[in-house]
């Protein structure tokens, strides 16, 4: 009986912590392991299909309806609609059902269209052709058909179709270069390494003969972490076990560069790739505007319930008199008299809720949705955002958060590559206190390329000369730089070698700058060939060092090391890293002189690194090798074991010297930072640089100004004071003075204002964010957050309502009308008007206003970023604005209702002596309301175009035409037509025309007064600019604001 399967399972799950890891086994090329090696237990893994869409054909309707009815307004109108179907209500179910159906349908179409575009993009990706190895030859198939274990070939400039373990490449050294810009924004080339035992397999036949299994961790989203090991089987010997790390993993979405082709085996496919795990949505995102609208709608819901309760109570007070409860012309049946009083009261309450339900504007959501959807096209069409170099414009993947672009409060930015060019230039190096500057200028002459000048006192002696050359060798060897011929490189920096021209490629521009700088001082790194690093010394001799180990750089250690063996058999450990990580591990060397030079360079904004070494005996190295190998092949807790091993190895070092490189600021970086601060946006800079280096760069880019008072929360300060004392002291400094700080709201930051800038390093930040022992969050977090909010800039170094008020004036007259109709639940407006008010009569003008309105021109906003403060922090949708528009809606409703009531009370208004009935009265109120709310929007419009004119005046014309047709024609599909000839008879009356004009004028009076008085007495920054622009316009003969929508002021380059 074969017990291999049982033995394997027992070993895997019961053998200890190493095998408790939740891991998977990948069979390379789907080949089973040799008999007796281990049991073949295939894992079920997804295919390589990518799904970024939200819906499918089958779940679209239920899932979309569920998401839409999570909104308060939609759910509320659904309940109202069901109530209208169940009980006898004063209005038809159509009045609620049709607007709800319209909103749900339009929103579903918009979301369905956006999801259809995602389906198209997914289909294009999933059907891309991929080459994979099958039976010793290349076969093409669609990307979606890839499976875990398939061996894939990727050519230069192609993207990796899934997460691959790098097996071999066309390069002899088994390396390849990739760019991960689509994953993490890094455009520099990163070097990845093939498995040592498979890098010699260069053909399809060779790679197909590979017999190996891979054990690795389950899929997880960290782009920079991977733990695994590969077992390579041979016919006779036990399997060779090699560790696998992030340097062996090629991620989906990354692109192959400067390498002809590579072979890799798929380990994570489809939605299990790291890229997919990072963009999978955890929950539906809602903007601040939508959250505010939900809160305001709850307020209106409370008002609605209050109205219904008041009317219900007043109805039964009114009906307490017998002749009112049961008049002679409307006798009750016996069943109605026996009906339970509480049930009748509840039914009446629901009926009043239905009657007043339009205070909650269901169409507001569809207006917002359409504004987002159409606004995304405005972003796409913006030619100012078109990049001529790439030939690409902006792409809007989803429109859900468009309005958040105008509500940015904080900007977090990296320093290297964002504020700076990430194009390093070697400036100097310091060896045992002696400074060397390549290409130094002496008496106006540039010294030869290989020459150097001692900038301190005298040249080093014989012993110093040996240390100097050892320093140069250390810089030439301690790196991960790759060398490639000039003809094969697509654009990196070139090495000024006297022989054949070549290029240095590395994921870190610092390493390239150091290797090139040392080359100008006489030592040239040539290549890594067959695990030997070659360099040319000052005497033009070639030196070869065997590369034994690489102790890779990480953001925690902040250093890297290499162990090499010279031709004479001497073993060296060369280490370079940040001064804070090197100096504590040094036992010998001129520490004080080098530390002084490092601090001086840091203050000047230069990036500094320290270099140290130690010699190893053969026995020491053998112990180091065993220690590293045991840590590297571990599947459980590998990072901790490697960190402990590195800590044991990188100690008792001898300090050699330090280097300094410069990373210049991006063009206009300083102007951008200054503009952001004027706009009230807080900028946080995150960098791994030394504090002095980072602070110097922040001064250069104007993040810190001349009068900025710097506040420090650094490890050095925490050595002298406790964290509690430091934060309390800063809190007193910042928070207690914040009330006295003054800001000029028009010009941005005041020049003489006391400004605060906070500097914090990674260790101090970790201490602040560290949770308490009981698992709760630290009480220092809120204090630290308050300090940050009152600082204009933070440097982290060493890191790793208008439409709702339309609806108030719409439904409040309905509430007032109940006091004049015996609380009989008689509706004031016709069913058609109730249904179309939000859908047709008032929706289009506000939609187009939201899309085309410009308070000030784009050029003005660029010149004065402080104008951004007027709309920041959701300023136009705050409680003060909400309450103002609500009370204004109540005022307008009172004007509409009582103005019409008192003007026509007991008055003959037609030529034949007839008086207006209730439907004519309601139509008059509705007409005044439609004209008022539309003209209010016209008053609020600053940027007039032909589109605004068309929709504003066109919507009023549409209302008039609709009313004429609705009441002027006998419609055969209606069982009764209470509005027949009502609108025409109203317009035939002179007093009706007078009422419309007077009531509209009175309703608009508060808006006109506010607009005039506030602009003259308390103008905002935007209003000041508008006023000054209007004064300059005639003199400057400025083009009409309509012009951008009609034609371009000057021709633009045509897109191909």
From TrEMBL:
Cofactor(s) for this UniProt protein: Mg(2+)
Compositionally biased region (Low complexity): 1027-1044
Top enzyme class: translocase
P-type ATPase N-terminal domain segment(s): 45-96
Segments forming domain P-type ATPase A: 130-191
Similarity comment: Belongs to the cation transport ATPase (P-type) (TC 3.A.3) family. Type IV subfamily.
Protein name (Swiss-Prot/TrEMBL): Phospholipid-transporting ATPase
Organism: Tursiops truncatus (Atlantic bottle-nosed dolphin)
Lineage: Eukaryota, Metazoa, Chordata, Craniata, Vertebrata
